[in-house]
Amino acid sequence: MSGFGEVFSLVFQWNVLGTVLFAAMYGLFVGAIPGLTATMSVALLVPITFFLDPVPAVAAIATASATAIFAGDIPGALLRIPGTPASAAYVDEAYALTQKGEAERALATSLVTASLGGLIGVALLAVFAQQLAAVAVKFSSVEYFWLGCLGLTSAVAVSSASLPKGALALFIGLFISTIGIDIATGHPRFTFEQMDLLDGVSFIPAMIGMFALSQVLRTVTTDLDTIVPRVPIGSLAGEMVRVVRRYWVNIIRSATFGNVLGALPGAGADIAAWIAYSLSRRFSKTPEKFGKGHPEGLADAGSANNSAVAGAWTPALVFGIPGDTVTAIAIGVLMLKGITPSPRVFVTDGTLVYAIFVAFALANLLLLPLGMLAIRASRYALSIPKRVLMPIILVFCVIGAYAVDNTLFSVWVMLFLGLLAYVMEENGIPIAPAILGIVLGKVIEKNFLITMLKTQGDPIGFFDRPVAGVLGALTLALWAYLIASTVWRGLKRPAVE
Amino acid sequence: MTLKALSVAVAASLLSTAAYAACDWTPDRPVTYVVPWGAGGGTDANSRMLASLLEAQMGQPFNVVNRTGGNGVVGHSAIANAEPDGYTVGAATVEITTMHHAGLTDLNHTNVSPIVLVDIVPSSVLVSSDSEFNTVNELLDHAKANPGELTGSGTAQGGIWHLALAGMLNAEGIDPGAIRWIPSDGAASAMQELIAGGVDVATPALSEGKALVESGELKALAYMHDSRMAALPDVPTTKESLGSEWTLAAFITMSGPEGLPEEIACSYEKAALAAMETQEWADFKASRGSDVVIMGSSDLTDMMARTSDNLGATMKAIGLAK
Asked: Does A462 fall in a domain?
């Protein structure tokens, strides 16, 4: 490893700092627009990075992705439009706070945990990348299958509705995920000869429709005139200090956990946020407050997904295997700049790699002041009367759905699923598990089929690798517990009545 | 044909085109550049780079749009069926010459207007570093003696890297199913399976496996091309190792919709070929371990027709054609 002085002299130059500042503002802006994702913000940066030196080029990518993930929480909390699938886990919690007039508390919690989660993630990346990557690449289809099952189970376990209603929502999501070409046979399913459905229902229009449009419909039909009074929380900085003081154990626990999941290619931030949120509820002293606007779940999930963003760089740097779509693009930029990912990258390009880490950490620090400005600006969005705000959100829904792949078809998907979600919520069926079903259904099905093809149908193949065996046993135990506790409660109830 | 001879031929054909078309059409609003594959892959990286250089050549933004899905059918249809006004171009890839054989669509290489060749991507034979196989012949002998025991991966069922493996087995007189195909999302997840011990062999592009071969995680047994890769000169070619001299390469083109007017097509050809002569393009190619290829519209059109015939025959032989 090279000297600290050399690393810092590479980072603390006006062009590097300027690039990081620009990329941070750009990431915040793109991430805050519903429908534009962190991946899109990074893809748009690629042509620009060509004209930059290696350190600012890669720093720009890392910075934009880190700030865009937080910025996705802003429309999530204010308008119930989650910016990324990773923030879908806690969008209901944040929006519940907003409806109590505590939007700033929700956003302050998201901001400070995003920043700290990111910092912890970068620190873990700098210290443990090699060891973690060696474990991550040993994951094959079997392990991913069980991990996906664990993620799904946590969605049902945390849902504030009853187990049957949570499970029903999940199955609706799983059904939606079966639309499109089946990976094993290449046969189209439920596509009704529509070419746009060949690739399945993409989750951004689905998320926008199910969360945001259904909320617009409910507001318009019920409480168009109520005004939520803003609850003053004092200074934002003061609130953030309180969050850290109260939840520092949660932040460290979830950031560590998120980093490990983020290092697994194809699992990443989405599953990390869901599992962190469900663990948060399990370990909480006040689990009954969850789902009604409680910052604890936000602290856990918010630090987990931002730490996972850093974790995704682990397999990318060490093996050239992308941890997520952002790092897939980042690998291209790294190689373009002469940094070839390899287990020896910390030796061969040590100074550059550590300089990138320092810039990454800097971006997470910069997130605090910039995020506070964004939160201050967002106050105005909430003071708009609902009669004006709802049509504006509707416009954002349409634009966001269209922007994903520039097709009108996605707008129809958004509208249809928005109506479906409205009907579901009117009947007490939660939305969040359905979204997770859409995101994870494909992962689980694909890895199940691939495993079956490998073992030629022998179910022992799901347990005969050490990690798979442990994950499989854990999942089965959790299912048994969930079923047993539901049956137990069912048996106990008549005795009480 | 060597590269130099090729470029001379292209220059000559350019001159002859110039005789009846001015080739100085330029767009006066932003152009959409359709990529049928996901962000971050090889097609995406090459196309984004070319798009940013075309922006400099033609003075208008080129917006890269990833229209993924249906194993490439969605994006290729978007290119072929676009208005041929010069404001939609895209990255038609080798799949446009194979998907009609597989019965996925009626769409084929005659439904696009090829402009330039962007990249040629030969396949490889990769195994894990702790694999018992050290040459491609050892691997094939084992597969022949124990059909169905080994598994291979690299892309979806019937995808180009599946053709690479099954076609090689077929060319060597071995049952194409002797190494069972395990579908994957793409090269990255297939190589991860290979390291994790989930499959025995992968046949993605050698350029995709280069980093893992250099880091010692994977062994490259063969390069499915007629000359060795400059960046990995120790990897033998299938032409040297195999009796059948089997080779297979995917390719990426820049193509327009069907019926693109000659004036617009040759203007794009001129701009793209100029972009490929810049230092930026050379650096970009070098960083990916591949060579700059120069091939204009007419040679590319011939090559696509030839590839369709050859791969169609292979697909029939291995039972992947409808």
From this structure: no
Question: Which CATH fold topology does B3-121+250-317 show?
Answer: D-Maltodextrin-Binding Protein; domain 2 (3.40.190)
CB contacts under 8 A, B 192-211 vs A, are 192-193, 195-199, 211
Among residues B223, B198, B196, the alpha carbon closest in space to that of B208 is found at: B223
Least confidently predicted of A377-386, B107-116, B168-177, B239-248: A377-386
Q: Give the residue on A whose Cα is nearest the Cα of B47.
A: A47
**Predicted ipTM?**
0.76
Delimiting residues of CATH 3.40.190.150 domain(s) in chain B: 3-121+250-317
Local structure of residue A211 (DSSP, 8 states): I
Instruction: Find where tokens 């029939």 sit.
Output: B316
Q: Which domain holds residue A446?
A: 4-453
CB of A231 closer than 8 Å to CB of A224: no
In the A/B pair of chains, how many CB contacts fall below 8 A? 137
How far is residue A485 CA from its own chain's centroid? 29
End-to-end CA distance of chain B: 34
Domain for residue A376, yes or no? yes
Instruction: Report the alpha-carbon distance of residue A69 to residue A273 in Å, rounded.
Output: 12
* Whole-angstrom distance, CA of residue B12 vs CA of residue B14: 5
Flag whether A463 is in a domain. Answer: no
Digit-coded pLDDT (tens) for A253-311:
999 989 988 888 766 677 788 888 888 887 888 888 888 888 998 999 999 988 998 88
Residue A448 has what pLDDT?
A: 92
- The H or E element that residue A366 is part of is helix A350-383
Say whether A250 sits in a helix, a strand or coil: helix
CA distances (Å), origin B101, targets B176, B314, B322 = 17, 10, 6
**Range 340-369 of A in CB contact (< 8 A) with B:** 340-344
Q: Is A335 on the interface with B (CB under 8 A)?
A: yes
Q: Return the bridge partners of A123, or none.
A: none
More confident call, A416 vs B285: A416
Is residue A112 within 8 Å of residue A82, measured between CB atoms?
no
> Helix, strand, or coil here: A294?
coil
- In a domain, residue A469? The reply is no
Q: What is the pTM of this model?
A: 0.80
Residues of each domain in chain B carrying CATH 3.40.190.10: 124-241
Closest CA to A10 of A365, A362, A333, A351: A351
Asked whether the predicted pLDDT for residue B74 surpasses 80, the reply is yes
**Any idea what the Cα angle at residue A402 is, between residues A379 and A90, rounded to 5°?**
45
- Domain B124-241: assigned CATH number: 3.40.190.10
In chain B, which residues have their Cβ closer than 8 Å to the Cβ of A188?
70
Q: How many domains does chain A have?
A: 1
Q: Are A281 and A297 in contact (CB under 8 A)?
A: yes
Q: How far apart are CA A97 and CA A107, in angstroms?
A: 10
Q: Find out whether A304 and A279 touch, Cβ atoms under 8 Å.
A: no
Among B196, B199, B197, B218, smallest CA distance to B208 is for B218
Q: Which of B45, B198, B288 sits opposite A454 (nearest CB)?
A: B198
Within 13 A of B262's CA, how many CA atoms are on the CB side? 9
